[in-house]
Specification:
The complex is a heterodimer of chains A (309) and B (426).
Chain A: E1 7-8, H1 16-32, E2 47-52, H2 58-69, E3 73-78, H3 90-98, E4 104-109, H4 114-121, E5 125-131, H5 137-150, E6 158-162, H6 169-180, E7 184-188, E8 204-206, H7 209-213, E9 218-221, H8 227-230, H9 237-244, H10 248-253, E10 259-261, H11 274-278, H12 284-305
Parallel strand pairs in A: 1-5, 2-3, 2-4, 4-5, 6-7, 6-9, 7-8, 9-10
Helix pairs in contact in A: 1-5, 1-12, 2-12, 5-6, 5-12
Chain B: E1 6-13, E2 16-23, E3 26-32, E4 43-46, E5 51-54, E6 56-61, H1 74-84, E7 86-91, H2 102-115, E8 121-127, H3 140-146, E9 150-152, H4 161-171, E10 177-180, H5 185-188, E11 193-194, H6 197-202, E12 206-207, H7 210-226, E13 230-232, H8 238-249, E14 254-258, H9 260-264, H10 286-298, E15 303-304, H11 313-316, H12 333-342, H13 348-363, E16 378-388, E17 407-417, E18 420-424
Parallel strand pairs in B: 1-4, 6-7, 7-8, 8-9, 9-10, 10-13, 11-12, 13-14, 14-15
Antiparallel strand pairs in B: 1-2, 2-3, 5-16, 16-17, 17-18
């Protein structure tokens, strides 16, 4: 198994082969969840530092569980209760953490480029668990893996990303990943939530969810950050829910058996009609399970296969 | 006629070797080097074929004193100016406290006089509004009397059109030119980089070019309506250039500046979150760069300035959004400009106009055209040497330039101001 990377900062660092390597490995790790003893000694003695400088429940827990299932030790640091809150800058915090010799540093940060910045000043391996609006590569990998588990292949499939594309690291990483896998990608949002340069993206752009949903194989709903209304990008959350919230009539236009995804946490009744989140074709909880398997695969690759520097 | 005090020998001026006779701080005579005149017994300074340029004028710098002396102080800033070949420097008002009263202006003037009595000469720019808050006019007569040469709200653009109109009108009393930092803060929206390809790929808030161009249009309309000059700071977009060209054709009394970095680099330079290329306005597209190059050649943009914005190392060593805007420019300005001459984008004559003749005319400063009576402000420049930019090679405290580690063409060998040798390259 070949893994030439020292860090995972964005999906653009990976080749399609790399992505399939992660999926194949995650297939094997996913089976562990069904075993009575959900632990393997593979990464015994390795230290994984979880540095979450922005609130997170599922991503942090997912990395924690992934590391522990492979017997690595995990250590957590959050923004609150850390020296960052006392005004320590990111560089000093990061150098302090490195002096404790973690093997991998998993970072979540509200500033775009934070993971990239740490990769330039630290010698340990960095996995980006989400930086600002920039990238969330492990989310994209788990989204891809979720569909990989359902579909026999990606060729000819169409995926719709519905919601705030402009301010979404998930959207950016999903577009990069599914484009590499050969999936047709559509995006749909009000123009205020589409990035200025969207015409340069490898996507088909819609501002009306009705034609956007027609014939698609999967729909990833994106969380609406409620502060977008305050920023003057939307007249109201209510109007957004009425015109852009995913509802069952949209699904009737899609391919039969269309899959519904959401990276979470879900605003029920805003970006998605509540019942759709729980329906049979919703993959939202599969995404959570896939997340653990994908992160096990990544930790395994980085800690056992990655080039020694 | 007073006796000559010194001779600068074998200097290249307008393509020919000349000897410059200097007396009482002024140019007395300019002679071809092969003339038969004897200089026996006079102090001679043989520059061995180096170029003679007038002392340069920088109409836009940030010297950080008072308030942020760890970034730069007046002494270190003027040292960088001397090393860069500058005779006159305008420094913006966004110090702490803001230069909106005579006390701050005088402090800056006194510091400059105490540390660099023979120049480079510092000319403070007073605040356009009290505290740069954009709500009330600052006391322009008081500022002018204390030594301010112009007015600006640089760093904190004025959004209130009524206040801006009154500022233009009131400034005519003490005769201070208004320099406007054109940026609509709402449209700029805390943009970290140019809006478009780079803001998308880096996931950073983008600042659209129209945030600048819209304010340029406002300023042109007000300047025309009031028939009062406005000087437009650090122009960075093609649209702004087109607006200025049209305004000048119509006789509107606007002038404009841009910086070497907008003529040399486009937004690609920030890829990889390169904070040393983070500047406001942000580096734009390659098309904007082409428009600006043409504009400086044709005189649509009148002058070059550095927008020298020194910062401490640790401030730029941060995630992109936390790093402050600005490039430290005085140490590299002439070499970067010379690279444009080498690439045949500018002629040496245009370079002299952009850095000396034109800013002297705009700000009412005396410059050197090497005619008798001119101040003997001479930048002795060797265009054929190269140097590598390093923290150690820069006199400014701010080492924040994307040129760090790069080799640049041309080096200031010495600076003479009013006939005195101010700086000589070791």
């Amino acid at each position: 198994m070949h893994w030439a990377h020292s860090h995972l900062l964005t999906i653009s660092d990976l080749t399609a082969d790399d992505i399939h390597t992660v999926f194949e490995l995650a297939d094997r790790f996913a089976e562990m969840a069904d075993r009575p003893v959900k632990k393997a000694p593979t990464l015994k003695g390795k230290s994984v530092l979880l540095f979450f400088a922005e609130p997170s429940t599922r991503t942090k827990t997912s990395f924690d569980m992934a590391a522990k299932r492979l017997s690595a030790d995990t250590f957590s640091l959050a923004q609150t209760g850390s020296s960052l809150q006392k005004g320590e800058n990111l560089k000093d915090t990061a150098l302090t953490l490195q002096a404790m010799y973690p093997d991998v540093l998993v970072i979540r940060h509200s500033l775009s480029g934070a993971a990239h910045y740490l990769s330039q000043i630290l010698t340990c391996k960095i996995i980006n668990a989400g930086d600002g609006w920039h990238a969330h590569p492990t989310q994209a990998l788990l989204d891809g893996f979720t569909l990989h588990q359902i579909w026999s292949g990606f060729a000819g499939k169409t995926l719709l990303l519905l919601g705030d594309i402009a301010h979404s690291r998930v959207a950016r990483s999903d577009v990069e990943l599914f484009h590499k896998l050969g999936v047709h990608i559509r995006v749909c949002a009000p123009r205020t939530l589409l990035p200025r340069g969207i015409d340069n993206w490898p996507v088909q752009v819609f501002t009306d969810p009705v034609p956007a949903c027609a014939g698609v194989d999967a729909i990833q709903c994106l969380r609406l950050q409620l502060e977008r209304q305050a920023a003057g990008l939307l007249p109201s959350v209510r109007e957004y829910a009425q015109f852009y919230g995913l509802r069952s009539s949209h699904l009737d236009l899609a391919q039969p058996g269309v899959k519904v995804l959401h990276p979470g946490p879900v605003n029920r009744g805003i970006e998605i009609q509540s019942s759709l989140a729980d329906a049979a074709n919703s993959l939202i909880l599969s995404q959570v399970s896939a997340g653990v398997a994908v992160r096990m695969a990544l930790l395994y690759l980085f800690l056992t296969q990655s080039q020694k520097e | 006629m007073t006796a000559p005090e010194c001779i600068v020998r074998n200097g290249r001026w307008q393509g020919r070797q000349h000897d410059v006779v200097i007396g009482q701080g002024r140019i007395m005579d300019l002679l071809p080097s092969d003339s038969t005149r004897s200089f026996e017994g006079m102090e001679c300074f043989d520059v061995k074929g180096a170029m003679l340029l007038p002392g340069l004028i920088d109409g836009h710098t940030h010297f950080r004193e008072p308030g942020q002396e760890y970034k730069e102080d007046i002494d270190s800033g003027l040292k960088a100016a001397a090393q860069g070949g500058f005779s006159h420097i305008l420094c913006m008002a966004n110090t702490d406290p803001v230069n909106d009263c005579a006390a701050v202006t005088r402090l800056q003037m006194q510091k400059a006089a105490a540390t660099h009595p023979w120049g480079p000469f510092l000319h403070p720019v007073g605040a356009l509004s009290k505290g740069l808050a954009g709500r009330e006019l600052a006391p322009y007569y008081e500022l002018a009397e204390a030594g301010c040469i112009a007015l600006s709200n640089d760093g904190l653009p004025v959004t209130d059109n009524h206040l801006f109109r009154r500022a233009l009108e009131y400034s005519t009393g003490p005769g201070l030119l208004v320099i406007d930092h054109c940026e609509d803060p709402g449209l700029a929206a805390d943009g970290q980089v140019n809006e478009g390809v780079m803001s998308d790929s880096l996931g950073l808030a983008g600042q659209p070019g129209i945030a600048e161009s819209l304010q340029v249009a406002r300023d042109i309309l007000l300047s025309k309506y009031l028939n009062i000059p406005v000087h437009l700071a650090h122009i960075s977009t093609r649209e702004s250039v087109e607006l200025i060209a049209r305004a000048k054709q119509a006789g509107v009394p606007v002038t404009a500046e841009t910086c070497p970095h907008y003529l040399l680099w486009d937004e690609e330079l920030v890829s990889g979150y390169f904070t040393l290329a983070k500047v406001n306005p942000p580096l734009r597209t390659s098309d904007d760069v082409l428009a600006l190059r043409q504009a400086v050649r044709e005189g649509v943009i009148d002058i070059l300035v550095t927008d020298h914005a020194p910062h401490a190392d640790f401030e730029k060593d941060a995630p992109f959004a936390q790093a402050p805007n600005g490039i430290s420019g005085l140490d590299t300005a002439l070499s970067l400009s010379w690279s444009l001459v080498k690439d045949q984008i500018l002629s040496p004559e245009e370079l002299i106009r952009l850095w000396s003749t034109a800013p002297a005319a705009i700000y009412g400063l005396k410059t050197n055209s090497f005619t008798p009576g001119d101040p003997a402000d001479i930048c002795i420049f060797d265009p054929d040497t190269v140097w590598t930019v390093s923290a150690e090679s820069m006199a400014s405290k701010g080492k924040n330039t994307p040129c760090l580690g790069q080799t640049l063409p041309g080096r200031v060998q010495a600076l003479m101001l009013q006939g005195r040798l101010i700086y000589e390259h070791a």
